[in-house]
């Protein structure tokens, strides 16, 4: 749901404070005094930035500025206005509803549990246009479905429920789930809360709070568990397009731009990457597993995982690709679980996969090992954001044992 966040962030000016006076030479430089607050719109080079001061705009020397402490007293660290604002329009709902694997997985969960859902009380947290609630009402006979939606889409959802003759069963409640009062506890808490790299947006926090408050003892969580999977991968075409490009465009040597390219294209992860199975250099492995019954809100601050891959295909190790899988347990003991897998061996979903590029590619051979750790660290201020820290060792099987390549990289998503 955040394919455009990256662009948004880049157009958001950052605030800086001037460390000393500067009198700009020429018409395109901006003069300022110590203590002035400047808005930096772009950083076209490390030395000269494009900035604004009281309506005037021009180049300023970067070393004269320092970043203001982020003042969160003015801004909502959850960015709810923007977040729920975007869910008040159709674009994201269309993207989610058009995602067949996603929507069919929830439909399948309800269909395969339809007998057990009879007379049950269900809460659909973040129901959007109400699709999951409507599936419940159509395919099973719950006593009631509380469809909770904070965005203004809820007004339309109510109409859709009525239009489809489900208003006797589905009650649409507009508001944040955290502030919602329900008349009773629920038997089933269903939600589609997963973001890029599973946790981005941290909607899962709302689900955990609702669980603790509204799920009755012995009630069921859908999804019931979630896993983040990682694989070391080759990313030839992305590397060629963003980095190798500068080697010889039009017969010229543009390699001095490569450090800039690395900074610009490889600092943040690439959302919406579709990895092909042949680009996986090893068997993917689950690095983080979350149990939706026992997971606590405070656990989200820092989630750690480990990996140990054995290279099964010689090639170039360009980075890591991550995706997630969620499971929905059956309401019947021993019943089959439903899985929604967003990896390269399943139908592509709107989440696609997330690519983390190394700064320098490493050649690897069959039998080499790639081991290390991953840490998802939630931003202490901006609660929907996090960083992904990857640390890896590549041990060659063919060369001397001292040929061990080590790397660490921290990727902001997006803050
Ligand atoms: N309370 C009510 N509705 C919410 C909340 C909340 N705390 N958080 C998100 N939503 N899988 N990453 C709504 C949001 O407005 C949107 O319609 C839907 O849940 C998001 C579902 C997909 N996002 C995701």
From TrEMBL:
Its EC number is 2.1.1.319. Residues 11-70 form the SH3 domain. It comes from the Eukaryota. It is an enzyme of class 2 (transferase). InterPro entries: Arg_MeTrfase, Methyltransf_25, PRMT_dom, SAM-dependent_MTases_sf, SH3-like_dom_sf, SH3_domain. It is found in: Cytoplasm; Nucleus. GO terms for cellular component: cytoplasm; nucleus. It catalyses: L-arginyl-[protein] + 2 S-adenosyl-L-methionine = N(omega),N(omega)-dimethyl-L-arginyl-[protein] + 2 S-adenosyl-L-homocysteine + 2 H(+). GO terms for molecular function: histone methyltransferase activity; protein-arginine omega-N asymmetric methyltransferase activity. GO terms for biological process: methylation. Its main location: cytoplasm. Keywords: Cytoplasm, Methyltransferase, Nucleus, S-adenosyl-L-methionine, SH3 domain, Transferase. PANTHER family: PROTEIN ARGININE N-METHYLTRANSFERASE, PROTEIN ARGININE N-METHYLTRANSFERASE 2. This is Protein arginine N-methyltransferase 2. It comes from Sphaeramia orbicularis.
């Amino acid at each position: 749901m955040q394919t455009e966040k990256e662009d948004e962030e880049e157009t958001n000016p950052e605030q800086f404070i001037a460390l000393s006076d500067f009198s700009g030479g020429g018409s395109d430089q901006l003069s300022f005094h110590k203590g002035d607050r400047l808005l930096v719109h772009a950083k076209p080079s490390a030395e000269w930035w494009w900035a604004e001061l009281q309506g005037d705009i021009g180049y300023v020397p970067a070393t004269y500025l320092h970043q203001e402490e982020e003042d969160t007293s003015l801004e909502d660290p959850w960015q709810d206005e923007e977040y729920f604002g975007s869910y008040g329009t159709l674009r994201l709902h269309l993207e989610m509803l058009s995602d067949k694997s996603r929507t069919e997985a929830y439909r399948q969960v309800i269909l395969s549990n339809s007998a057990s859902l009879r007379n049950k009380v269900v809460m659909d947290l973040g129901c959007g246009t109400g699709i999951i609630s409507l599936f419940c009402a159509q395919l099973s006979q719950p006593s009631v479905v509380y469809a909770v939606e904070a965005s203004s889409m809820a007004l339309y959802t109510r109409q859709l429920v009525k239009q489809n003759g489900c208003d006797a069963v589905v009650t649409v409640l507009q508001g944040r789930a955290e502030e919602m009062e329900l008349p009773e506890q629920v038997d089933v808490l269903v939600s589609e809360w997963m973001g890029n790299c599973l946790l981005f947006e941290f909607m899962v926090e709302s689900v955990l709070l609702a669980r603790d408050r509204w799920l009755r003892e012995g009630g069921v969580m859908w999804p019931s568990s979630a896993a983040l999977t990682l694989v070391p991968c080759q990313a030839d075409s992305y590397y060629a397009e963003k980095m190798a490009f500068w080697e010889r465009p039009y017969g010229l040597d543009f390699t001095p731009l490569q450090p800039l390219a690395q900074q610009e294209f490889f600092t943040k992860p690439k959302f919406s990457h579709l990895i092909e199975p042949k680009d996986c250099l090893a068997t993917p492995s689950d690095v983080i597993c979350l149990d939706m019954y026992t997971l606590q809100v405070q656990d989200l601050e820092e989630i750690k995982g480990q990996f140990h891959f054995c290279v099964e295909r010689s090639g170039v190790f360009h980075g890591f690709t991550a995706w997630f899988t969620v499971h929905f347990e059956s309401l019947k003991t021993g019943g089959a679980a439903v899985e929604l897998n967003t990896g390269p061996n399943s139908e592509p979903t709107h989440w696609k996969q997330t690519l983390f590029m190394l700064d320098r590619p490493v050649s690897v051979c069959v039998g080499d090992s790639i081991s290390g750790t991953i840490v998802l660290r939630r931003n202490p201020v901006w609660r929907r954001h996090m960083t992904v820290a990857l640390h890896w060792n590549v041990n060659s099987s063919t060369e001397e044992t001292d040929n061990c390549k080590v790397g660490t990289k921290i990727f902001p998503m997006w803050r």
